[in-house]
Amino acid sequence: MNRTHQHGSEAELYRLKGELTLQKEFTVQGSKFQVADARGEAEACFQKAIEIAQRQQAKAWELRAVMSLVRPRQRQVQNHAPRTMQHETRTRLKEAHLMLSEIYHWFTEGFDTKDLQEAKAY
Questions:
Q1: Alpha-helical segments (H) within 23-85
Q2: Cα separations (Å) of 79 from 44, 68, 82?
Q3: Dist CA 117 CA 8 (whole Å)
């Protein structure tokens, strides 16, 4: 991207990096990668993707990045976060749901697309 100055998909690339990071171990072109703090690193990627998408006014990329942020937070709540973190975990999930609601309600068409149908389900 830096060489070609084509940054149109930059947000999506950060989102995908976050999704791969959540897998904790993945292989790219024969090289194996392991991630120590997968959740924290993935969230940083999702946040970066959201910032880039907002700066570029790329609402579809922003929607995908926010959904990627919601998923692990949702799983953490469902997997019963430790008692000491329950309030913080639920607060972070509410924040992510608010972000998702705001971006979802920006759209005025395309509600038959997979991304918007998935966002509505949350």
A1: 38-56, 59-78
A2: 21, 17, 9
A3: 24
Show me where the domains of the chain are located. Answer: 10-121
Q: In this structure, what are the phi and psi dihedrals at residue 86, rounded to the nearest 5 degrees?
A: -60, -45
Angle at 93 between CA 89 and CA 50, to 5 degrees: 120
Q: pTM of the entire structure?
A: 0.81
Q: What are phi and psi of 31, to 5 degrees?
A: -100, 130
What are the pLDDT tens digits along the chain (122 aa)? Answer: 666 556 678 999 999 999 988 887 556 667 766 666 788 899 999 999 999 999 999 999 999 999 999 999 888 877 766 666 777 888 889 999 999 999 999 999 999 999 999 999 98
